[in-house]
Amino acid sequence: MLSPLFLVVAFLIKLTSPGGAVFFVQDRIGLRKRKIRVIKFRTMAPGAEQSLTALERYNEVSGPVFRIKNDPRVTCLGRFLRKTSIDELPQLFNVPKGDMSLVGPRPLPRRDYAGFSQDRHRRRFSVKPGITRLWQISGRGSPSLPFEKWMQMDLDYIDHWSWWLDFKILAQTIPAVINGRGAY
Description:
184 residues; alpha+beta; 9 helices
């Protein structure tokens, strides 16, 4: 059903940012700290991962994660794909594969996981990671939502999980994405 959109996005990525792949594939930490390969549409210039170290001093998020609002590595098309969350759609392939679910804590890159200093934070790996989560609908990438707060939201999700909670998060994700609230 989404294949026409995927084709258009792939064409636009190649047209506006030649020299790089259409998809960004990254090893992340999933259920029981198992390595999973997460696929997204590429939103950054080719070689962006290698320039991360040079940008770390501009990090706007507390804790072991990295986010900057006007990341110079993001392409013009990439900004649109992120604002609309279209870049996340290829992760739907991770769901039937069993690596991810629709709702759950986001899978973190190994670099971010390595910075965890508290065992309670690692409890988030006791459930499958998801494409959307409480943090997505509450802060959606906002640096004003501190690391500790979104970690607590992930743990609250785990502690209070129900089908109804997943349904509510999925239903609230749609307006959050349409409004582009907090998207980088």
